[in-house]
Amino acid sequence: MNRKKKINSILKKRIKKMNSKLHTSNKPKYVSKADREKLVLEAQQQNDQQVDAQQQSEQEQIEQEQIEQE
Q1: What is d(CA 47, CA 60) in angstroms, rounded to the nearest whole number?
Q2: Could you tell me which InterPro entries the record lists for this protein (predicted)?
């Protein structure tokens, strides 16, 4: 009985290991604190560039309207 039990437990362990390798985790990849800060800085820079571009386009529109009114 002992031998059967031991063999079965070994086989069950193997099956568990194989199944665990097949199922990947849904947990997001770890991002270090320094990398998070870099990402935030990059996002802020992109946002600032977009705001600057919008302001320039608005100023150009205002200038064109003033020229048309004259």
Answers
A1: 20
A2: DUF2986 (IPR021677)
DSSP label of 4: H
Q: CA–CA separation, 64 vs 57, rounded Å? A: 11
The phi and psi torsions of 23 (rounded to 5 degrees) equal -95, 110
What CA–CA distance (Å, rounded) separates 52 from 45?
Answer: 10
Which helix (H) or strand (E) covers residue 48, if one does?
Answer: helix 33-69
Mean pLDDT of the chain: 89
Please state, in angstroms and rounded to a whole number, the distance separating the CA atoms of residues 4 and 15: 16
